[in-house]
């Protein structure tokens, strides 16, 4: 995958670029694709439950997931970092854009959650990837209750400015969440729901289940 241009980096290999390549614009859905209100709510609920289940170190930990109209600027000082992961089915794909900030609270919580240090940059990036894999693995398991065949990519890191080019994905809908864990670690998550052209996607709910503690999600 080419990662030298931010618009290219978000797209999957081999997919042609639109004529408007390189220009920032608002998200535009693929021709003829629709996402029902019930499906939108179901996806948002699945993402919320997956984030909460994947973020707690102890049962008393608080994880607040708030739906936003647009991505908020980083709440803490630190180096911003974008981590991207895809889940694909035959009729749609989900592109997850995790916007992390390398502040002390984020480092501390990930170190406790994943049980390894996050002091070095390489270790911190690996922690971002492992955490995103946990969240998206939970989403993927939930999707399995309604869609038999889904596939999940490995996470990859991009410059945070690449998020400005999400319109090249032609999403049917973009859902944005602000996540606060114990009122300390905070990050934003954008989920681009990309329904294939000519498809009307309607699903009512997903069955969610927590992964056993300590079990790795392998793909």
Name the structural class. alpha+beta
Strand content: 15-25%
The tally of helices reads 4
Count of DSSP E strands? 9
Rg for CA atoms: 17 Å
Shape: globular
Return residue spans where pLDDT drops below 50 for at least 5 consecutive residues.
13-25, 212-219
For the record, give the distance between the C-alpha atoms at the N and C termini, rounded to a whole number: 19 Å
Helix content: 25-40%
Structure overview:
This protein has 219 residues and is of the alpha+beta class. 26% of the residues lie in helices and 25% in strands. It is built from four helices and nine strands, in the order αβαβββααβββββ. The strands form two sheets. Strands 2, 3, 4, 5, 6, 7 and 8 form a seven-stranded antiparallel β-sheet that branches. A hairpin with a 3-residue loop joins strand 7 and strand 8. Helix 2 crosses helix 4 and helix 3 packs across helix 4. It is globular. 34% of the residues are buried. The C terminus is likely disordered.
Please outline the helices and strands.
Layout: H1 6-9, E1 34-35, H2 37-55, E2 63-68, E3 80-88, E4 92-101, H3 104-114, H4 121-143, E5 151-152, E6 156-158, E7 173-181, E8 185-195, E9 200-201
Parallel strand pairs: 1-9
Antiparallel strand pairs: 2-7, 3-4, 3-5, 3-6, 4-8, 7-8
Helix pairs in contact: 2-4, 3-4
């Amino acid at each position: 995958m080419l990662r030298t241009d931010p618009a290219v980096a978000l797209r999957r290999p081999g997919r042609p670029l639109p004529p408007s390549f390189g220009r920032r614009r608002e998200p535009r859905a693929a021709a003829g694709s629709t996402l029902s209100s019930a499906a939108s709510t179901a996806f948002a609920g699945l993402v919320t439950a997956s984030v909460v289940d994947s973020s707690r170190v102890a049962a008393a930990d608080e994880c607040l997931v708030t739906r936003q109209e647009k991505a908020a600027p980083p709440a803490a000082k630190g180096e911003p970092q974008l981590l991207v992961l895809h889940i694909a089915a035959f009729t749609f794909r989900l592109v997850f854009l995790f916007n992390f900030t390398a502040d002390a609270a984020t480092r501390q919580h990930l170190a406790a959650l994943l049980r390894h240090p996050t002091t070095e940059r390489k270790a911190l990036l690996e922690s971002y990837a492992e955490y995103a894999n946990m969240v998206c693995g939970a989403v993927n398991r939930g999707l399995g209750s309604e869609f038999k065949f889904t596939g999940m990519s490995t996470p990859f890191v991009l410059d945070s400015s690449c998020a400005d080019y999400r319109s090249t994905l032609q999403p049917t809908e973009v859902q944005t969440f602000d996540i606060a864990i114990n009122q300390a670690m905070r990050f934003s998550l954008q989920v681009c729901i990309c329904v294939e052209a000519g498809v009307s996607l309607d699903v009512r709910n997903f069955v969610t289940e927590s992964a056993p503690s300590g079990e790795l999600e392998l793909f």
